[in-house]
Amino acid sequence: MQHVTAVVVTYNRIDLLKECLQALREQKVDRDTQLDIFLVDNASTDGTKEWIDGMVSAGDAEDRRIYATHLAENTGGAGGFYTGMKWAYEHGADAIWIMDDDTIPQADALQKLLDGMMCAGNEVAPQDEIGFVSSTVLWTDGSPCQMNRQHYVGQEVTVSGKGAEESALTLQAVDSATFVSLLFTRVAVENKGLPVKEYFIWGDDKEYTLRISETYPCYHVKESVAIHKMKTNAGSNIVIDDIERVPRYFYAFRNDLCTAKRHGTKEVCIYFAAFFLNMLRILFKSRDGKKMRIATMWKGMTAGMRFAPEIGGWKQ
To answer: Residue 81 and residue 194: Cα distance in Å, rounded?
Structure first.
């Protein structure tokens, strides 16, 4: 029996959480796969705690065991995934499938990831353990989700599926992806540690997937599909984003510099080139809040010069 734990991090989005959980309960997987669900409530105040507690006590008709933890404070996506993945590892998961509460995986999304992981291990990289496999992420209208594109480092490879449907799968090597329907192997988590919880939000997925892919081959399984129910289909862009969201970019500029420092001088130079290009774009293209946008960038960058949280093992 293969044990998979799905980790969902949620914060004050009870309606989306209900939809996400229903999609997880409806996953069609082989009989030798046990799917458990672990919900990480980041101190929600909208009734999420009470609803989750009801779900946990009621159990699941499909034998999907549901577990949960309620954090005392909002630790952001980074803290939530740290907590959830640590719990899954400590409770014996063979693979850990992670997503936010606004992620709606199609019914065969997990099985396609499992098939892709097995095919990669057997055919594409037979001498290597696999780090992670990721799904295709679409927006609500079926178009590619701009915020959730993988970074490719290899050509597409077509393999024959070995799972329930035995259909062809398209795999493409990646070195980074976002935390929207990623399936990690136990060995990768054990040997490369957990996400950096101090990142809070933004950039934690890039840092962690780059860390995994430094050692293990990782792939995008294109036939595995999840819908990301974001309000708009737009990537992160401090130049044009709504003014009320601008303070959040502090974490992006702080965390990205921290990650760049870990990867050497070239990445730091790329960071600063992009930094000053964004400043120019704000000056010439932003419709409002130019001073606030630049101040946020500067605050994040200067904090990033000192920011160096420790990366330890899974017991950190």
So the answer is: 8
Residue 316, pLDDT score: 44
Nearest to 127 by CA among 192, 209, 217, 67: 217
Per-residue buried b or exposed e for 243-252, using 16+ beta carbons within 10 Å of the residue's own CB: eeebebbbbb
Residues 5, 38 contacting (CB under 8 angstroms): yes
Instruction: Please classify residue 310 by burial: count the beta carbons closer than 10 Å to its beta carbon, then call 0-12 exposed, 13-18 middle and 19+ buried.
Output: exposed
Q: Identity (one letter) of the amino acid at 218?
A: C
138-163 burial, b if ≥16 CB within 10 A, otherwise e?
bbeeeeebbbbbbeeeeeebebebbb
In three-state secondary structure terms, 148 is: helix
d(CA 135, CA 78): 20
What are the start-end ranges of the H helices in 132-264?
186-192, 204-213, 249-262
pLDDT digits (tens, 9 = 90+) for 12-36: 999 999 999 999 999 999 999 999 9
User: Tokens standing for 272?
Assistant: 């600063």
Which SS3 state, helix, strand or coil, does residue 160 take?
A: strand
Chain segment 182-240, per-residue pLDDT in tens: 999 999 999 999 999 999 999 999 999 999 999 999 999 999 999 999 988 988 899 99
Q: Quick one: DSSP state of residue 139?
A: -
Q: State the pLDDT at residue 312.
A: 61
